[in-house]
Amino acid sequence: MSAFKDNLLAGKTAFVAGGTSGINLGIAKRYAELGAKVAVAGRNPEKAAAAAASIGPDALGLSCDVRDYGQIRAALEEATGKLGKLDIVVSGAAGNFVAPALGMSANGFRTVVDIDLNGTFNVFRACYDLLNIPGASLIAITAGQAVNPAMMQAHVCAAKAGINQLIRVLAMEWGPAGVRVNGISPGPIRGTEGMARLSPTPEADAALNARIPLRRMGEVEEVAESAVFLVSESAKYVTGTILDCDGGSQLGDARDRTGAQGLQAG
Ligand code: NAP
Ligand code: COA
């Protein structure tokens, strides 16, 4: 069930970096359903082709590594060459593994910061002169680790915190030209690679659900709805914001403690 009207994005062109699986692919699919021309990009060319085919016959699947400025620039140029200048760019490529700081090498830390943070800078810096300006809308996909420190996530916490500030700075620098820059911070989203890494068992899922105010993980489609809102006319005065689509997860641990000693009502 969606509040958005059919063909909302007709005439728009979108590029989704990291859009070949999971949440970002869900966003790309929703943009295409609403009439946008869409390109998705990831490292693996077969996966990119399959993702594009799953979106529709006109979608473009491109292969590039966002850590390499030349590669992402070439992918963006190919997309605009085939689909036209861009109205929407989503930067969502990310890497994650669960390890304590003492269990990760300098290269392990750098790898995640490079994909998430440097990758987002690369995507946004490289797309700027390929945008339809004024009116273009950029979204970076961040995470709750940007705000709340999490054990075994030093690399992701650092990278996503950097992304949050990058969103705000670019919103200030590019706002005068009519380019909006926002973020989405998804909570735990069911059936994704991210959650397979962070919550690998049904028991872990149940414990997680009990801590979320809305008492469940989110769906890819729910994040996609937020991504439609931010690029729509309804959000034309919204820039530099980070929309938490997370069932209230970032508010803190919402376990019901009424049975716990010392915390009973009265
Ligand atoms: P996913 O399915 O693993 O998606 C990651 C995407 O990025 C894939 O398309 C992957 O394709 C691409 N990618 C990875 N490294 C890349 C690189 N160096 N260059 C270009 N593309 C690259 O992940 P997900 O779980 O859906 O997460 C998507 C986004 O949501 C991430 O930004 C993540 O931090 C954020 N998020 C997820 C959750 C969650 O519950 N899953 C929660 C909060 C935030 P290739 O492997 O082919 O490159
Ligand atoms: N624990 C500790 N270190 C780890 C690790 C783990 N579980 N997994 C990888 N690393 C380290 C590697 O050992 C390596 O460091 P080293 O050279 O000092 O040994 C470094 O990270 C880079 O690993 P590599 O496999 O060469 O990187 P890559 O660029 O091929 O892949 C990853 C990047 C590691 C982030 C990989 O998990 C990935 O591609 N992820 C994308 C999908 C994803 O994470 N989705 C969820 C998004 S929330």
- Rough shape? globular
CATH architectural category: 3-Layer(aba) Sandwich
Strand content: 5-15%
CATH homologous superfamily label: NAD(P)-binding Rossmann-like Domain
Largest sheet: 7 strands, parallel
Report how far apart the termini are.
41 Å
Count of separate DSSP helical elements: 8
CATH topology: Rossmann fold
Quickly name the level 1 CATH class. Answer: Alpha Beta
Number of domains: 1
How many strands in all?
A: 7
Pick out the low-confidence regions. Answer: none
What topology, given as strand order, has the largest sheet? 3-2-1-4-5-6-7
What molecules are bound to this protein?
Answer: NADP nicotinamide-adenine-dinucleotide phosphate, coenzyme A
Overall pLDDT, averaged? Answer: 97
Family: Belongs to the short-chain dehydrogenases/reductases (SDR) family.
Keywords: NADP, Oxidoreductase
Protein name: D-xylose 1-dehydrogenase
EC number: 1.1.1.175
